[in-house]
Amino acid sequence: MNVLFLMFSFPDMNKSFNMYTSLVEEFTLNGHKVVVLAPGVEKTGINIEKGIQVLRVKTLPIKNVPNYLKGVSNLLLPLQFERALKKYYSNEIFDLIISPTPPITLVDLSVRLKKKFKSTIYLILRDIFPQNAVDLGFINKRGILYRYFRQKEVKLYNNADFIGCMSQGNIEYILKHNPKVKPEKLHELPNFQKPYYTSEIPLMDIKVKYGIQEKFVVVFGGNMGKPQQLENVLELAKSCMVFPDVIFLLLGEGVKINKIVQIAENEKIRNIRIHRTISKYEYQDLLKECHIGLISLHKDFTIPNIPSKALDYFNVGIPVLASIDRATDFGQILEQEEAGLWSFAGDHDSFFKNFTALYHNKIMREKMSKNGKRYFESFLTPQIAYQTIINIIN
């Protein structure tokens, strides 16, 4: 089967990996011919990454840029993708088109390719847009932008042959707000990730590098933007200053990182250390030496998000401490799997109470670590995701 992946964010597979690179590899390992269409930086052309053809398309900046520029980039992306596809793969026929959200602006290209090749569209639903932008105050629900993107969203759901959702909560949300969508299209496709393999970096080297020897380490890894509402994490860190051995590691990038640094300095929150992006491999080595993995979601979300960074915590086997909105069913997953504790965003007392429960109870942490690892191995690997997709489309 010839498979085309339409990707909004896709790292160089020779240097790093993420959820989608692992799925691309899995399709390739199972004998499918795969082409990835993804943004590039320097110029448009075909790269061979881990033996797989990746057509990198020169686009405007997409990540870590102001929202207006990200919007323009999204609108131009399908035109740039289509032009590149015609130039480099004009004689190719694709049987299956796989595309995740974000963005939804690739829908017109997906539909044109579906008609041209009589192919199947499989949608990996990871963002429910534009409602998430409304929740965060980025766009007005009565405005022209919302109406434009909402039309694209409806078109996407109607034209996708199958829709893989992160959780049952996602499925219920889509059906409630899109009654014309056929229920049989939707099924669960949880977030997934390659299993962690210990690298050759000596244990003490990684501890010394990040200054965490003899420390109880609470880690947050990933994007630091408005959706994460890291003010909740700062409040928790401030409360934890009564424990001299506790250190908070914030690892990643995002439009709010400078604000977070400023707040930490102004309020003299001395147990926080912020490190910008590190390699994925080193990140996983570092996580192994942490005691708790943090999840933080904005309290105003009305859509059920399932944070992908939890994969990293489950993968390496550390318990999760979550501050979440009232719409997500992530808390139910943590309870069901007994892999962490959660509270509602903004409830600082409960957040701190849950932290102290984990901090003082090593047996609880070890049990939740094992449960999270077992949950990961049973449901959250690329092999399971691949088989889910294949079973559905067949």
Give structural notes:
This protein is 42% helix and 19% strand. Strand 12 (292-296), helix 11 and strand 13 form a beta-alpha-beta unit. 42% of the residues are buried. Helix 11 crosses helix 14. The protein is built from 15 helices and 14 strands.
SSE inventory with pairings:
Blueprint: E1 2-6, H1 19-29, E2 33-40, E3 45-49, E4 52-58, H2 67-88, E5 96-101, H3 107-117, E6 120-125, H4 131-135, H5 144-159, E7 162-165, H6 168-177, E8 186-188, H7 203-209, E9 216-221, H8 231-239, E10 246-251, H9 257-266, E11 272-275, H10 280-287, E12 292-296, H11 310-316, E13 320-324, H12 330-337, E14 340-344, H13 348-360, H14 362-379, H15 382-393
Parallel strand pairs: 1-2, 1-5, 2-4, 5-6, 6-7, 7-8, 9-10, 9-12, 10-11, 12-13, 13-14
Antiparallel strand pairs: 3-4
Helix pairs in contact: 1-15, 8-13, 11-14
Please report the distance between the alpha carbons of the first and last residues: 12 Å
Element string (H = helix, E = strand): EHEEEHEHEHHEHEHEHEHEHEHEHEHHH
Which residues form runs of ≥5 with pLDDT under 50?
none
**Rough shape?**
globular
The number of helices is 15
Structural class: alpha/beta
Quick recap of the structure?
The protein is globular and about 65 Å long. By secondary structure, the chain is an alpha/beta fold.
Q: How would you describe this structure in keywords?
A:
394 residues; 15 helices; 8-stranded mixed sheet; 14 strands; alpha/beta; globular
